[in-house]
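REQUEST ID: PR-0412
SUBMITTED BY: lab tech R.K.
PRIORITY: routine
TASK: structure prediction, single protein chain
INPUT:
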Amino acid sequence: MGAGHDHGTQALRAGAKHRSRLWWAAGLLAGFMVVEAVAASLTGSLALLSDAGHMFTDVLGIGMALAAITAAGRAGTDSHRTFGLYRLEVLAALANAALLTLVAGYVVVQAVLRFSEPPEVPAGPMLVVATGGLIVNLVAFALLRGGAKESINVRGAYLEVVGDLLGSAGVILAALIIAFTGWAAADPIVAVVVALMILPRTFALGRSAVRILVQAAPEHVDITAVRERLAAVPGVCDVHDLHVWTLTSGMDVASAHLRLDAGAELGDVLSVAREALHDDFDIEHATLQVEPVGAGGRCTPAGW
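STATUS: complete
OUTPUT:
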């Protein structure tokens, strides 16, 4: 239990670090979202509108991330939630993926409707606002990049900012094309391209969240290798009822039944098995049930 508790404490400390960065990113994006929405309304630019929409999902997603981190930090006071509220982080990440998919779909539909008669869009204001959006997104990108490697929820907000970076770059490109060629269709075309570019990342995030929610084994963990490693622990003659899953990002959990040879020292077996899971598979929290074989008995594998 000690390793699992230490790992949970480390996760909460990491959450506190991420919370400060998330607040800064949310404030910057929320402020510029308003600027971009007003500019989109005044210029009629669909590309600006799509970028403002992406910023809205960023702010909402970061808000959910902050709520999840705060809830997880308070979970230890609730005796009815024995695993805490770590899964809130995963739910928030899944919601972020769904929101970003909806925004991308809306932009594509609106762009298709505009292809036949694209409205005139003033390139100057469009270029200025898009450049400002690019700068804001670069700052948010830098704030969230480190946390994205440690938390699936922060990674959700990070991917949305990546989408916004592409969006801002696309709007700049569209503004330049309109300024130099007068081709108004560049606005809806760029909006569609940006929407389609961010969908694969969004689907990957959603897939990762769903895998955790259905308690699938982590992709980086070879279950056969885990079973063989536990079976190789001195004193163990059979491993069954093995389960490995992810509680939340960076927190893999395992449970297993170990049948012991006659005369095996229970304490030694548990100690070696836990060390093996920690050292070889980075599994901090494991619940291991031992089933000693009676003196003179024979070790027989379980039927399931």
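NOTES: The chain is about 70% helix and 10% strand.
REVIEWED BY: pending
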